[in-house]
Inverse folding.
């Protein structure tokens, strides 16, 4: 965290997970000046007075007129750069065969904590 703080100040941050730990980390990265960050989830915790959370789906937040500068940077600079550098890793997933009949077992495995990452089920598959 200390290393990230030395790279600031940050204009805008985003958490794609939205969990409380990541939101609190972003709020601390925005200190001491404050600022705003986007989250895909709300939160039931207090933020510093100088930090604002934009709670909206990423696509909604990015497409609003007030975030035009961020949107331009995201799509024209950041995304092409990390894709070209291969510095982002896709989420791991497991493909389950069996179509819709596999959905119940896959859901149970997620709830039981037997799966890391995502499970993909093709409903049209036999």
């Amino acid at each position: 965290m200390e290393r990230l703080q030395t790279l600031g100040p940050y204009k805008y941050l985003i958490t794609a997970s939205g969990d409380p730990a990541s939101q609190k980390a972003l709020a601390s990265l925005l200190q001491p000046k404050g600022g705003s960050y986007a989250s895909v989830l709300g939160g039931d915790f207090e933020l510093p007075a100088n930090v604002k959370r934009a709670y909206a789906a990423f696509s909604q937040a990015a497409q609003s007129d007030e975030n035009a500068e961020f949107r331009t940077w995201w799509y024209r600079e950041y995304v092409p750069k990390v894709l070209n550098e291969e510095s982002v890793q896709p989420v791991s997933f497991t493909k389950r065969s069996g179509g819709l009949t596999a959905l119940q077992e896959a859901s149970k495995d997620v709830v039981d904590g037997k799966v890391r990452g995502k499970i993909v089920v093709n409903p049209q598959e036999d």
